[in-house]
Amino acid sequence: MTPPSEHRATADTARRGRPPSGSSMLSRPVIVQAAIDVIDAQGAAALSLRSVARRLGVDAKSLYNHIENKEALLDAIAQQVLSRMVVPAATGDLRTDLIAIAHAFRTAALSSHREAVTLVLSRPAELLAHLTPLEATLAALMAAGAKPDWAVHAVRATLAFISGSLLREASTGLTLGADDPAIAGPREAALADLGLAHVALVAPYLSRLDHHREFDFGIGILADAFVRELAQAAAKA
Question: What is the dotted CATH code of the domain comprising 94-236?
Answer without folding.
Answer: 1.10.357.10
